[in-house]
Specification:
With 26 residues, the chain is mainly alpha-helical. The chain has one helix spanning 2-25.
Length: 26
């Protein structure tokens, strides 16, 4: 369960970074 939470957290961080990059690009 802890591993799943860690993966979900990392995925969320990656998603936020991608969103930020897309926002700066526009």
């Amino acid at each position: 369960m802890l591993v799943a939470a860690l993966i979900a957290f990392c995925g969320g961080v990656m998603w936020l970074k991608i969103n930020a990059a897309e926002g700066l690009r526009e």
